[in-house]
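FAQ: What does a multi-protein file look like?

Like this. Sequence, then C-alpha cells, then the next protein.
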Amino acid sequence: MNGLNGRAFGGILKMMVFLAALVFLPAWTVHYWQGWICLLVFFACVMGITLHLMKNDPALLERRMSAGASAEKEKSQKVIQALTSMAFVALFVVSSIDHRLGWSVVPAYVAIGGDALIVLGLVFVFLVFKANSFTSGIIEVAADQTVISTGPYGLVRHPMYLGALLMLFGIPIALGSWWGEVAMVPMIAGIVLRLLDEEKFLARNLRGYDDYRHQVRYRLAPFLW
C-alpha cells in the first residue's frame, strides 16, 4: 500500500469512528438500527468512491485529501468551512438526541428512504469526480485546469454541492429524525455562501469560466437557482 492509499484508508477510519461517536453517544445506546444502517450506507459509498479514485485517479484523491477550514487558503472560506463543519456535526447530534428523547416518529420505510437519499447524493458526487479530475477539497485552481461543461456540469455549475445537499438532507431522515433537519438551515446557508465566493474566485482565476456561467444558467438547483 502506497502512502496516499494509506492516508486515505486512515482518513476514512478516523471519520467513521468520529461519526459513530456522534451517532451513538448522544443517543446513549448502541441499540439504534437506524444509526447502524446510516453509517454502513455512508461508509460503503465513501469506500467505493475512494477505491475507484485509488485505481483510476490518484491525483484527484490527493486533491480530496486536503480539505476543511485549516486547509483553505482564502480567509472567507476558512470561516465558511468552520460553520458548515459545525452544522455537519449538528445533523448527527441533534438527530441522535431526537432518537433518545423520542421527539420524532419516522416510519422504518421513511428512514430507509433517507438512506437512499444518502446513496443518491454520493452517486451524484461520484459522477462529478468522473467528469472533473480537478475537484479539489478546497477552493483553488491548478496550473493546467480547464473548465468542465459536460456531464453533471451541464446541468448546474456546482453539481458536487447539489449531490452533497441530497446526501446531507438524507442523514437525519435515515437516523429517524425530523428535528435533525433544522441543522440543514445553517448548512444550506454555508454552502450558498461558499458557492458564491467560489464563483468570484473562479471568474478571476480560471480562464473561460465567465463563458461557462453564461452557458449553464443554474448554479445549484435546476430550474430554480
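And here is the next protein:
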Amino acid sequence: MNRGPTSSDHEQHQTEDESIYFSPLILGLVALSLLVMIGLALGHAALVALISPPARSPRPTPLLPPAPRLQAAPRIEFQEMKATQMARLNNYSWIDEEAGIVRIPIERAMQLVAERGFMITTPGAPGVAGTPGPGETEGDAAQGQRLFQELGCAGCHTGAPDAEAPPLQGIFGEEVSLQSGETVTVDEAYLRESILNPEAKIVEGYQPIMPSFQGEVSEEQLAALIAYIKSLGNE
C-alpha cells in the first residue's frame, strides 16, 4: 500500500526549491544582464551626444536705446551749454595740431580781420596776376612776404641774373620751361607743389637746391606765400 508524502519529503522538496531560487549562477546572470543593459544605455547616450549638433547658446538680448526723456532742468542745461560755447569762443585751442590749425578767441579774430582788411570777391572767379585771388586779402600777401623773408626764400629768389633760383616777379600766370623739356603754367597748384616738393618740376637752367617745406609750414602759411608770389608784379 502506497503511503502519502511525509513531512520529511515536503521539507526536502522545499529545500531543493530554495536552493534553486538562490543559486549564485542565476544571480550572477541577472547582474551581468543588468550591467550589459546599463552599458548599452550609456553607449547609446554617448553616440547620440556625438551625432547631435551642439546646442546653440541663446542669443544676447539686443540693447535698446534709452527712452526719450524730458529735460529735468532746461534753464540750467541751457546755461551750461552757453558757458561751454563761450569758453570755446574766448580761448585758444587746437583744431588740427598736426596741420597747425588753431582756434583763436573771437575778439582776436575780429582784430586780425580789421588789421588785414577784407575784399569782396566772386567765388570761382580766376585770380589775376598781381592781385589777390578769391578768398585772399592784402593781409595774406603781407603775411606771405614776412614768411618769404623769414624762411630765407629771398636769398635765392633775388631776381638777379646770377641768382641760384628763378625770379618770381610777374611769374604767376606765365609759362616756364622745365629741365624735362616740358612747359608748365605757373598757377596755384604749381606754386604749392614747388613749395612742398621742389624737385618735382625743376625750372630749366637751375639746380634742385631748394629744400622742401613739407611739414614746415601750415596750410594758412602756404596760402599766404602763394598770395605773396601772386601779388609780385614785373619789377
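Q: Is there any per-entry metadata?
A: Some entries carry free-text notes. For the entry above: The first strand starts at residue 93 and ends at 96.
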